[in-house]
């Protein structure tokens, strides 16, 4: 069993713990030693004994340790990964046993999380530290850059490119051949029928930018 820790003790962190437990039911692989979180509130829904400390403690960890960054916010996730400098740390890919990932020309970068019932088809490049939420889908020939977060039940059609650290909300539908700019935020339930520029928030049916950031 390989030791693994989760960065982020919030809701998504607990979901990732469940994902790891389901992996272990089929193929005992991981020993979850706990959570690292700089902001560990008293009402957290995990046992305080599993709180291993802050990122500072993680960067001081002396043994080889697998780490998964379970943060839904794309920008914060990128900031946290950039702050992890410990050479003993490595970032595995975690794929739920009920996720379906095609065998033909699918590349998944380190630290990425493929949740239960997600579907990834064929000829797809997924970057580092990407999260594909429960029951999300990614069609053929997509390119999803580093630190993207795709929330549950989002559907990404074929030949879509999603820029670095973009956030795709719950239930979003993106039609084929569109581009989502880096750091864009697509609000829940939006339908993307034209490309979305970087660093904006887009909502609605069809999705349109409502503000830039």
Number of strands: 24
Q: Please report the distance between the alpha carbons of the first and last residues.
A: 44 Å
Query: Briefly, what CATH class of the largest domain?
Result: Mainly Beta
CATH superfamily grouping of the largest domain: Hexapeptide repeat proteins
Structural class: alpha/beta
Q: What's the architecture of the largest domain in CATH terms? A: 3 Solenoid
Q: Could you report the average pLDDT, rounded to the nearest whole number? A: 96
Sheet-strand content, in percent, reads 25-35%
**Total tally of structural domains:** 2
Q: Which overall shape is indicated by the principal axes computed on the Cα atoms? A: globular
User: How much is the radius of gyration in Å?
Assistant: 17 Å
Helix % is 10-25%
CATH topology of the largest domain: UDP N-Acetylglucosamine Acyltransferase, domain 1
How would you describe the overall organization of this protein?
The chain has 213 residues and is α/β, with parallel strands linked by helices. The chain folds into two domains: 2-92, Rossmann fold; 95-206, Hexapeptide repeat proteins (UDP N-Acetylglucosamine Acyltransferase, domain 1), CATH 2.160.10.10. It is built from three helices and 24 strands. It is globular. The N and C termini lie far apart (44 Å).
């Amino acid at each position: 069993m390989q030791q693994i820790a989760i960065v982020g003790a919030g809701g998504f962190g607990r979901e990732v713990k469940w994902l790891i437990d389901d992996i272990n039911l089929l193929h005992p692989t991981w020993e979850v030693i706990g959570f690292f979180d700089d902001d560990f509130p008293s009402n957290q829904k995990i046992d305080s004994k599993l709180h291993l400390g802050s990122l500072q403690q993680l960067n001081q960890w002396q043994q080889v340790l697998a780490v998964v960054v379970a943060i839904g916010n794309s920008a914060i996730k990128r900031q946290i990964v950039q702050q992890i400098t410990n050479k003993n740390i490595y970032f595995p890919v975690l794929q739920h046993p009920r996720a379906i990932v095609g065998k033909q020309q699918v590349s998944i970068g380190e630290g990425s999380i493929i949740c239960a019932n997600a579907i990834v088809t064929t000829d797809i490049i997924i970057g580092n530290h990407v999260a594909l939420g429960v029951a999300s889908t990614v069609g053929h020939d997509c390119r999803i850059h580093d630190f993207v977060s795709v929330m549950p039940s989002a559907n990404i059609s074929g030949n879509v490119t999603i820029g670095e650290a973009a956030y795709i909300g719950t239930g979003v539908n993106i039609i084929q051949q569109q581009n989502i700019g880096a750091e864009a935020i697509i609000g829940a339930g939006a339908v993307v029928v034209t490309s979305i520029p970087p660093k904006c928030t887009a909502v609605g049916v069809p999705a349109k930018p409502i503000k830039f950031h």
